[in-house]
Write a structure and sequence with these properties.
The protein is an alpha/beta fold. Helices cover 42% and strands 19% of the residues. The chain has a domain of 368 residues: ATPase, nucleotide binding domain (Nucleotidyltransferase, domain 5). Helix 2 crosses helix 11. The longest helix is centred in the middle third of the chain and has 36 residues. The termini are far apart. The structure holds adenosine-5'-diphosphate and magnesium ion. The site of magnesium ion has 4 residues, from loops. This is hexokinase. InterPro entries: ATPase_NBD, Hexokinase, Hexokinase_BS, Hexokinase_C, Hexokinase_N. Pathway: Carbohydrate degradation; glycolysis; D-glyceraldehyde 3-phosphate and glycerone phosphate from D-glucose: step 1/4; Carbohydrate metabolism; hexose metabolism.
């Protein structure tokens, strides 16, 4: 019988694995917005989002409500790593009956304790009386917390039952009671329970502690969870300490196959049958009861205490945790066991003593094993949600089971290691209880609040209000009008260049076309076949040697013709004369669809004899020189126009082209009657806005921040392309880097350490913004990887702040782009006299395509700024190849129609 009893109290490893799985499921359930109300493991948010970093400084008051005492504590931190905080404390006994009386009396008593404590300590140190004194309140009951200093009591426990407190904000109750004591300089800043206090206590002395376990009368655990997983709060960045409240684990039956008949008896006799099933197997309040019921059962089976009366075991609570500890901690002989049992009134034989000892060890050992299983669930959960292969973590420990049972630590470590081999926990004993932790929470809260104010100050100029954006929209509109006007064009910062493209595709275009793409990352020659079945393309990339880029114009265009001949030969297209569209991504003054004067070379080109010349003619001349008759240049196009045309083939409503890549630019279909720079009033023409230069006349100066000015000054064209420099891929990374430098100087980041790499221009690439903003808790590792490349050693909080900086910069870019577009679509709507305009924007550019939030932010802002326009976005595929061919196709179609 005794063996059977012992077996029922020992849980096989595979069963523990299953239980760990259940615990993890329940944790997820407790965190999920949909299921948390039904969850047994409550997973309560604590609004504690950071652990101490050692820079905390000042005086902090703590008041802790305990089982039968109120403890007050004054902690002085020197900002020296919290190595040796100075602490003064005083303990007050709770008056008889107060735990069952009125809530007001309880809180008045607590406030009196604070008042008396301060009177005594301030007496010895008058300097502390003037300053404001932040207070942390340790309140070890289940609360629904909605802020660090706002917590509604859900239910009393541990024998407390005061009136008029459940459902109320206990922080408010304490603050009012304190105000009544005329301690107006004391601010209740934080509320926390003892588990969280333990975690924070153990976080001192330079070690981060992200888990705490209290194995005491009850049992509980807390840990730092990824904030975005805590769906019951609005907080989404960083981490937040979650109070698991795991005592109710198993209340839905998940523990049924491991509970013993002894556990059932304990539960039935308790004041809350069916509830807190896990706690009733592991809490020291219950372990004595489990042993008592096991002994009763064994005595009934005549396996123990044969021939003596066991009537004394009938009495609830006779067997306490202290008895158990004494019994099991007695390794030598059984004489002490005999003495303890005799004191209880039990006649025990030598054999009885041995068996009682075995039962006690089994019950306490099981409690430790179950704690280990819960811990393993938490560790694995943390490891998984942080996307780590292995997790090393410190676990703060407190409670009489942990302190009184020497094997607890060993069992906790070995069992959790078996269940979560990927995790490595180090146990840290809590030295000063939860009080010191409460001081740390309070100190951290104040540090974070101060830091937040400074961060906001740095980022404020980059955050645009709706009014700012409306102003940008209005200014863009003004500049557009100026650019279109014959007289005003010369002074407009937005050039509004005519493109002589007057139709978008209608899908009836047919034929084979050649296209050239010069001025992007690669020089390409393409053949584009437009048929009923859609568009087919083949292309080849050709190299333009630097000697040719920077040689004579003749050599450059000869080379281009050579490439075309090579391509047509390879594609078996030599016998045809194909119409050709030329994407030429350099600024041109266009005089006709096939006539465009080069205004200036950019991007490393400097071929002589080209500026001021008609680029199409230069290409035709070269063809003549090479006697190549296989092509006929029909059109020269800008890449925005190509983008609009290529999307226009799939969507006839596409009448806007947008590029957000290395640079930014847009084009759209304008009414000819509005285009003052071109003769004629009929129909429409696509206008290449060249909006990157918006603001070059100073009209956006009010928006430029210190960071933008520094970035602008370091470019090859200071003062030029000002709008582009707020938006496009070439600059966003550098803006972020400038902010990081300033924040580091202000000690807000990277512990104030600026590495030489961080000071290197353009080292922070725009694609980093995409990676960083994409990462939720899961991919913070990738942020670390990026920072490691910059030789920066970043804390978790640094990563979170870095992400905020990136978000701020990319959001502003998207919003400005939207303000520009809003001006465009609103103008189109007015042009056409419509209440509502439906239009599609064809978009190209890697920043738009790959950044995780840019397009969403752009579209959301546009909807807001231009509510009467229904704007869709279509991604362009190879706009510069396909688009140029389509311009040629549309032109030939129009020419055919004329004939
Ligand atoms: P271009 O504008 O020269 O035709 P792209 O459209 O490919 O070329 O844009 C290149 C720009 O996109 C680069 O300047 C770079 O800053 C940016 N970029 C590259 N990768 C990413 C990314 N993953 N996320 C955001 N921006 C990126
Ligand atoms: Mg491009």
């Amino acid at each position: 019988q005794i063996q059977r009893a012992l077996r029922s109290l020992s849980i096989p490893l595979e069963r523990l694995h299953i239980m760990k799985g259940h615990m993890m499921q329940d944790m997820c359930k407790g965190l999920s917005r949909q299921t948390h109300a039904q969850a047994k493991v409550r997973m309560l948010p604590t609004y504690i989002c950071s652990t101490p970093n050692g820079t905390e400084k000042g005086n902090f008051l703590v008041v802790e409500l305990c089982q039968s005492q109120v403890r007050t504590l004054l902690v002085t931190l020197d900002g020296d790593g919290n190595m040796s905080p100075h602490m003064v404390y005083k303990i007050f006994d709770l008056p008889e009956g107060i735990t069952q009386g009125s809530g007001e009396a309880l809180f008045d008593f607590i406030a009196q304790c604070v008042s008396q404590f301060l009177a005594e300590t301030i007496h010895s140190d008058p300097s502390k009386s003037e300053e404001r004194l932040p207070l942390g309140f340790v309140f070890p009951f289940t609360c629904r917390q909605t802020q660090l200093d706002k917590a509604e009591l859900l239910s009393w426990s541990k024998g407390f039952n005061c009136n008029d407190v459940v459902g109320k904000d206990v922080v408010q109750l304490l603050q009012s009671a304190i105000n009544k004591q005329e301690l107006c300089h004391v601010d209740v800043v934080a509320l926390l329970n003892d588990t969280v206090g333990t975690m924070m206590t153990c976080s001192t002395e330079g070690r981060a502690c992200e888990v705490a376990m209290v194995a005491d009368k009850g049992s509980n655990c807390c840990f730092m969870a990824e904030a975005y997983l805590v769906e019951t709060t609005e907080e989404t960045s960083g981490r937040m300490c979650v109070n698991t409240e795991w005592g109710c684990f198993g209340d839905d039956g998940t523990l049924n196959d491991i509970v013993t008949p002894y556990d059932e008896c304990v539960d039935v006799e308790s004041s809350n049958p069916g509830e807190k099933r896990f706690e009733k197997m592991v809490g020291t309040l219950y372990l004595g009861e489990i042993v008592r019921h096991a002994l009763i059962a064994l005595a009934a089976e005549k396996a123990i205490f044969t021939g003596t009366s066991v009537a004394v075991l009938k009495e609830k609570g006779v067997f306490t945790i202290q008895h158990i500890m004494e019994i099991i901690n007695n390794e030598e002989g059984t004489s002490d066991v005999k003495r303890i049992l005799e004191a209880l009134g039990l006649e025990a034989s030598e054999r009885d003593c041995g068996r009682v000892q075995q039962i006690c060890r089994a019950v306490v050992g099981r409690a430790a094993t179950l704690h280990a299983t819960g811990l393993a669930a938490i560790l694995s959960y943390m490891c998984q949600t942080r996307d780590m292969e292995t997790l090393m973590v410190n676990v703060g420990m407190e409670g009489e089971l942990y302190k009184g049972y020497p094997r607890f630590e060993e069992i906790l470590l070995s069992v959790s290691r078996l269940l979560s081999p990927e995790c490595m926990a180090t146990l840290l004993p809590s030295r000063d209880g939860s009080g010191r932790g409460a001081a740390m929470v309070t100190a951290v809260a104040l540090r974070l609040a101060a830091q937040r104010r400074e961060v906001n100050e740095v980022l404020a100029p980059l955050r645009l209000s709706r009014a700012d954006l409306e102003k940008v929209q209005a200014l863009m509109r003004e500049e557009m009008e100026r650019g279109l006007g014959k007289e005003t064009n010369a002074t407009a910062s937005v050039r509004m260049l005519p493109t002589y493209v007057s139709h978008t595709p209608d899908g009836t275009e047919r034929g084979d076309f050649l296209a050239l793409d010069l001025g992007g990352t690669n020089f390409r020659v393409l053949v584009v076949r437009v048929s009923e079945d859609g568009i087919n393309m083949a292309s080849e990339i050709y190299v333009i040697p630097v000697a040719i880029m920077q040689g004579t114009g003749e050599a450059l265009f000869d080379h281009i013709i050579d490439c075309i001949i090579d391509f047509q030969t390879k594609q078996n297209l030599v016998t045809h004369t194909l119409p050709l569209g030329f994407t030429f991504s350099f600024p041109c003054q266009q005089m006709g669809l096939d006539k465009a004067l080069l205004l200036t070379w950019t991007k490393g080109f400097s071929a002589s004899g080209c500026v001021g010349q008609d680029v199409v003619q230069l290409l035709r001349d070269a063809a003549q020189r090479k006697q190549h008759a296989g092509m006929q240049v029909i059109a020269l196009v800008n890449d925005t126009v190509g983008t609009m045309m290529s999307c226009g083939y799939d969507d006839p409503k596409c009448e806007i082209g947008l590029i957000v890549g290395t640079g930014t630019n847009a084009c759209y279909m304008e009414e000819m009657k509005n285009v003052g720079t071109v003769e004629g009033d009929q129909g429409r023409m696509c206008i290449n806005m060249e909006w990157g230069a918006f603001g070059d006349n100073g009209c956006l100066d009010h928006l430029f921040t210190h960071f933008d000015k520094v970035v602008d000054e370091s470019t090859i064209n200071p003062g030029k392309q000002r709008f582009e420099k707020l938006i496009s891929g070439m600059y966003l990374g550098e803006i972020v880097r400038q902010i990081l430098v300033v924040m580091t100087q202000k000690q807000l980041l990277f512990q104030g350490k600026i590495t030489p790499k961080l000071q290197t221009r353009n080292i922070f690439q725009t694609k980093f913004l995409s990676t960083i903003e994409l990462s939720n808790g899961l991919a913070l590792r990738q942020i670390r990887a990026i920072l490691n490349e910059l030789e920066i050693d970043a804390s978790f909080e640094d990563s979170v702040l870095l992400r905020e900086v990136c978000q701020t910069v990319s959001l502003r870019a998207a919003q400005l782009c939207a303000a520009g577009l809003a001006a465009v679509v609103e103008k189109m709507r007015e042009n056409r006299g419509l209440d509502q305009l439906s239009v599609t924007v064809g978009v190209d550019g890697t920043l738009y395509k790959l950044h995780p939030c840019f397009s969403d932010n752009l579209q959301k802002t546009l909807k807001d700024l231009a509510p009467n326009c229904n704007v869709s976005f279509l991604l362009s595929e190879d706009g510069s190849g396909k688009g140029a061919a389509l311009v040629a196709a549309v032109a030939s179609r129009a020419a055919d129609a004329m004939e």
